[in-house]
Amino acid sequence: MQTIDGDRGTPISRSASARANLLAWVVLCSTVLICALIPRAAQAGEGTLSTTTIRVPLTVHVAVEDGNAVVDDARIEACVREANAALARYGVSVWVRAVVELRDTTTIETPDQRLALAKVARRDGSVHVFFVDRVELATARNGDQRVSGMHWRYHGLSPRVRAREYVAVAHNAPRTTLAHEIGHTFGLGHDEDVDNLMCSCKRGESPSFSARQGRRLRSGARRFLDRARPRAQPRRVERVRFSRAERIELVRQVRAPSRAERAPRTSR
Ligand SMILES: [Zn+2]
Which residues, other chains included, contact 246 with Cβ-Cβ below 8 Å and sequence gap of 6+? Predict the structure, then answer.
């Protein structure tokens, strides 16, 4: 945080009253600046200051089976609380922006089902969390393998789902599963320590993130917010790359053809 370095353009009188006035102005300006900066830093949620908590929204999708949600609000809250208990000490938190009903999907088993969810997980700045009945990863080698959760991210080229990602959690997964999958979302890999939240194993009683993981989580949360930002805004125009002459040339290349140019060149 910076403070104003006085009013350099104003001649300074040596009289005591002038000095008092100047001091009053410096104090006033500093106070105004500090008041202006503090709320902005708090709202930014992206680490403007090193002590600012990075707040990442969640959009929670809940599968419905036979008219009943596979998890209730209390269960969702418990998972979120568990995640925040582990994230808080590293200046990261998650909060539920919306809870919506997930239609037509209760289990995630096949590549097609995983891809279908990517279309639901729009890029809107939030981590999409799907609570479903069952998550299974079918592989040729292992066959169907039930898991408690997964983090999925698309690396293909289809423009409809490019760079989409989400988290899926089985309805009966341990409460720590959401924190584990959020860890993946923010860039963490697996750890073998049973007391570590990133252990892909039966975790201990109160697993946590290590300090090293905490630092990665913080930068990973920032990177997530950046890549998950909606892309509705117009792209920034690159203005320094071309000289004026080259830009004119480019305009010529994309100019709409005249009527004469549009006329068919071959006759029937
Ligand atoms: Zn994992």
Answer: none
The helix/strand/coil state of 156 is coil
Q: How far is the CA of 73 from the centre of ligand 1 (A)?
A: 24
Beta bridge pairs of residue 129: 60, 167
First-residue to last-residue Cα distance in the chain: 74
* Stretch 45-62: mean pLDDT: 77
**114: pLDDT confidence band, cut at 50, 70 and 90?**
very high
User: By percentage, how much of the chain surpasses pLDDT 90?
Assistant: 55
Question: Residue 176 C-alpha to ligand 1 middle, in angstroms?
Answer: 11
pLDDT at res. 148: 94
Q: At 238, is the secondary structure helix, strand, or coil?
A: coil
The rounded Å distance from CA 149 to ligand 1 centre is 8
